[in-house]
Amino acid sequence: MQTGNRASIRYANALLSLAKEAKATAKVSDDAIYIIKTLQGSKDLKNLLQSPLVQTEDKKQILEHVFTDVQNVTSSLFGVLASNRRLDLLENIMQRYLDQLDSENGFVQAEVISAIPLTDALRTKILMKVKAISGKEGKLKERVDPKIIGGFVLRVGDSEYNASVLNQFEKLRTQLVN
Question: How far apart are the C-alpha atoms of 163 and 46, rounded to whole Å?
Fold first, then answer.
């Protein structure tokens, strides 16, 4: 596990504890979604947080200016991250917070990669497969990747169910070579 990932998990754990104390887990969850979407939608803001040329205090002030309407618990995280020079982990921390909250609420994160967008019927079948694999209700993160040609790849925790046409071609190629 990467150092940044470990640190993100620790910060997310602390944020979840503080949110629970403040009875604001749902509101901090809304903040996390808002922050993630904003960072993913603004390459400039993301680059600013990664830049060693921008002073940490300036980064913190910019975050406080951009995210004026977040919970106190969330905005206090900006200060902690700034003092530890870890503002570059903000997006990852917010995602880890959401994952941990989902896990505590009996959900498991699953990623499905398909060649085309999923239909509602296929989404329902995949969610049933997630429940069969994990024993928990699933929350799907969907991604379209035309390279897999058809079918889908489902990742739940450490498990992967690869029903892609590309995977079938690779198996066939391996058999033919051997």
Answer: 34
Domain boundaries, the chain: 3-102, 106-177
Alpha-carbon distance of 2 to 86, in angstroms, equals: 14
Instruction: Give the separation between CA 11 and CA 35, rounded to whole angstroms.
Output: 15
Sheet containing 159-162: order of strands: 137-144, 107-114, 152-156, 159-162
- Model confidence, pTM: 0.73
Q: Write the DSSP symbol of residue 111.
A: E
Q: Find residue 160's DSSP bridge partners.
A: 155
Fill in the amino acid letter for 7. A
Residue found by looking up tokens 């967008």 in the block: 117
Strand 137-144 and strand 107-114: the pairing is parallel
In whole angstroms, give the CA distance from residue 162 to residue 152: 6
pLDDT at 1 over 50: no
For the domain spanning 3-102, the CATH number is 1.10.520.20
Neighbouring CB atoms inside 10 A of 82's CB total 19
The label of the residue with tokens 């977040």 reads 70
**DSSP string computed for 3-50:** HHHHHHHHHHHHHHHHHHHTT-HHHHHHHHHHHHHHHHH-HHHHHHHH
Tokens of 10: 């620790």
Q: pLDDT tens for residues 103-116? A: 888 888 889 999 99
